[in-house]
């Protein structure tokens, strides 16, 4: 049976029958030009705004994951097509869109991470997932590929923007939530939202602890968010947002494939023996404004600062103090040009920061004391002109400049600096039918300057001569709703020069980076929500990823490792009028996935079945059960890339085992 046939059969087996629908719940991730009237106002506004983008975008409301034990990006974005989000341990995950940062073996690059429009990456673009509190995001905006221009983003993967609730947009005035589950997991949270005339406030506290599925994977966290706003009339406000976190996390290390499948709960010997950890405190504050001058012109802008203290002993001790500051401003204009409807946004984004880093010997005789300074600036603009009532042409681009200054306090011969600039244009079109269905196409250039992980690679003196990663991406897609169906499909092809790739030369040692020459990332992203009968909703997402070298001298046209060629997710949810629901789900990789560039080792595919159920009572109380990996399958969904797994002495201990059978339960009270 072909893969397409298998998907069709799966859908028919899961669906109890066909029927017509009225609407889809607010939790749907698909953006359409005609928002669902059942969406909360804040979520509906976000979907309508993103629908103006001539490219692939999604909105994930808090409703999509509040009835599960969502502990990070892998849970929040599990149904979003085009996204590779897999948990490694704790909240550490792989996050990639369209192959961005494809084989990044720790943390994230290639996607602009933001909260309320403010980047929370370091000044060189490197990001850490653990600085996010998933429970406090009212919704998440996902801009796939070259569609993140309104943030100045020009990365291959796009942008991810977490929106903090305000006193006016929070789901309820008061929330108490508690969760417990397998592997010693426990989490408690409280939220408070109020308005006082022109003032509003939102506050949230979250505390979590857990033993982890694997040995040496304990974690504990405390997070707090405060959002205070003052209105000065309609669509005019000033807002202060403060966030803090204290995170302690043991690091279980990586295993060989045989170890990961035979004894998935084990930690690596080095990780347990030398007490590998990743502990950090984070403080972040932003002062922002939204100011409407008239019906045609709106300004959004702000300043921000972030400070992080990281203690990270692995095979070497990494001790960092990270400080980042920045500012941004953006104008949005709507009006007419030559008698035709038109809109335009333009703005600037600037960030600066430094990392003071000490490396100490833990297993190897490595020591270092350095300061890494970086800046980044982007000027950006995009306009749309409706040449007919249904067809808009879009054009824009971003100009950026970056600097890197490195000081080695132990050896001045390693000091180095780099500065460069780039330009990334964009062209697109968007057609919208009277029913609200849309067809779009665009061509975008992306640029990713090298971060310090690529530039500083001991024992190489100074900077490694890596070049910025550049790509041209073409994309076509369609989205809309008709009767019982809401759909979203995009096809893209990115031709990349100097792709930044990496591999782990030693267990636990940060990866080495190099430019790969010409590579191609192309694929299909599809999502379909089907109201198959009254109360029954089948949600499906499918991602096809075809990533390969293009005439590489060493690897020819080999497939790039790590990303699965096919990934399919489906959830069938029955919601009863009395308030309870039950939702079995499937996560399926039908084919094995390459682990190395030489294409000699594969990680087995898998199928994971889970079950989610819950009950919303009229008094504001909600209960849920989240049972995962019901068959207790041993699998390895996440791993780092290897150069040639068949080479003598090759390090293949790069695998993170998937979590075994687990059950979580939760309670929430809104009042």
In short:
With 671 residues, the chain is mainly beta. Helix content is 6%, strand content 53%.
Helix content, binned percent = under 10%
Count the beta strands.
35
Mean pLDDT: 90
Radius of gyration: 24 Å
Q: What is the makeup of the main sheet?
A: 22 strands, antiparallel, barrel
What is the end-to-end distance?
52 Å
SS-based class: mainly beta
Q: What's the CATH architecture name?
A: Beta Barrel
Q: Uncertain segments of ≥5 residues (pLDDT<50)?
A: 1-24
What is the CATH superfamily? TonB-dependent receptor, beta-barrel domain
Strand content: over 45%
* Number of helices, where a helix is a run of at least 4 consecutive DSSP H or I residues: 6
What's the number of structural domains? 1
Query: What is the overall shape?
Result: globular
> What fold name goes in the CATH topology slot?
Maltoporin, Chain A
The CATH class turns out to be Mainly Beta
């Amino acid at each position: 049976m072909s893969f397409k046939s298998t998907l069709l059969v799966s859908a028919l087996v899961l669906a109890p029958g066909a029927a017509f629908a009225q609407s889809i719940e607010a939790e749907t991730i698909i953006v359409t030009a005609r928002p669902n009237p059942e969406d909360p106002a804040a979520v509906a506004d976000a979907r309508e705004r993103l629908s103006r983008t001539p490219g692939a975008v999604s909105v994930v409301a808090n409703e999509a994951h509040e009835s599960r034990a969502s502990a990070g990006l892998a849970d929040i974005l599990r149904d979003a097509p085009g996204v590779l989000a897999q948990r490694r341990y704790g909240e550490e995950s792989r996050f990639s869109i369209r192959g961005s940062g494809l084989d990044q073996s720790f943390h994230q690059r290639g996607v602009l991470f933001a909260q309320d429009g403010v980047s929370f990456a370091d000044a060189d673009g490197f990001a850490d997932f653990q600085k996010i509190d998933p429970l406090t995001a009212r919704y998440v905006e996902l801009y796939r590929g070259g569609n993140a221009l309104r943030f100045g983003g020009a990365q291959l993967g796009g942008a991810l923007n977490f929106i903090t609730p305000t006193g006016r947009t929070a789901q309820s005035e008061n929330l108490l939530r508690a969760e417990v589950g397998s592997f010693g997991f426990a989490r408690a949270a409280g939220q408070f939202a109020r308005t006082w005339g022109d003032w509003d406030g939102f506050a949230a506290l979250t505390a979590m602890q857990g033993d982890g599925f694997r040995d040496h994977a304990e974690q504990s966290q405390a997070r707090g968010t405060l959002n205070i706003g003052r209105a000065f009339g309609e669509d005019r406000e000033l807002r202060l947002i403060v966030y803090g976190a204290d995170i302690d996390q043991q690091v279980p290390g990586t295993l060989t494939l045989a170890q990961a499948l035979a004894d998935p709960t084990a930690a690596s010997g080095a990780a347990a023996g030398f007490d590998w950890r990743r502990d950090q405190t984070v403080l972040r504050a932003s002062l922002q404004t939204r100011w409407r001058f008239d019906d045609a012109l709106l300004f959004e802008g702000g300043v921000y600062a972030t400070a992080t203290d990281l203690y990270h002993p692995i095979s070497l001790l990494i001790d960092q103090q990270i400080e980042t500051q920045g500012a941004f401003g953006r104008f949005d204009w709507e009006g007419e040009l030559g008698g035709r409807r038109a809109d335009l946004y333009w703005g600037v984004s600037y960030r600066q920061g430094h990392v003071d880093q000490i490396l100490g010997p833990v297993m190897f005789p490595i020591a270092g004391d350095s300061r890494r300074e970086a800046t980044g600036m982007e000027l950006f603009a995009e306009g749309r002109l409706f040449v007919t009532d249904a067809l808009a042409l879009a054009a824009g681009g971003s100009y950026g400049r970056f600097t890197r200054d490195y000081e080695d306090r132990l050896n001045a011969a390693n000091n180095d600096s780099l500065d460069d600039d780039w330009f990334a244009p964009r062209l697109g079109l968007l057609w919208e039918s009277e029913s609200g269905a849309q067809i779009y196409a665009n061509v975008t250039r992306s640029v990713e300057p090298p971060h310090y992980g690529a530039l500083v690679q001991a024992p190489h003196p100074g900077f490694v001569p890596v070049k910025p990663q550049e790509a041209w991406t073409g994309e076509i897609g369609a989205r809309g709703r008709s009767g019982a169906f809401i759909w979203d499909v995009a096809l893209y092809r990115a031709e990349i020069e100097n792709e930044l790739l990496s591999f782990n030369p030693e267990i636990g040692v940060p990866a080495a980076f190099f430019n790969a020459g010409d590579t191609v990332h192309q694929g299909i992203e599809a999502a379909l929500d089907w109201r198959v009968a009254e109360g029954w909703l089948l949600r499906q997402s499918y991602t096809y990823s075809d990533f390969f070298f293009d005439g590489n001298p060493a690897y020819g046209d080999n497939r790039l490792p790590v990303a699965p060629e096919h990934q399919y997710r489906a959830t069938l949810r029955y919601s009863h009028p009395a308030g309870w629901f039950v939702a079995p789900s499937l996560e399926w990789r039908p084919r094995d996935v390459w682990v190395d560039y030489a294409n000699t080792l594969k990680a087995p595919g898998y199928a994971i079945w889970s079950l989610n159920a819950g009950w919303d009572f009229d008094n504001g109380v909600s209960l849920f059960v989240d049972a995962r990996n019901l068959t207790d399958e041993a699998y390895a969904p996440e791993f780092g890339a290897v150069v040639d797994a068949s080479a003598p002495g090759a390090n293949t201990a790069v695998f993170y085992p998937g979590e075994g059978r687990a059950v979580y339960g939760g309670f929430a009270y809104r009042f």
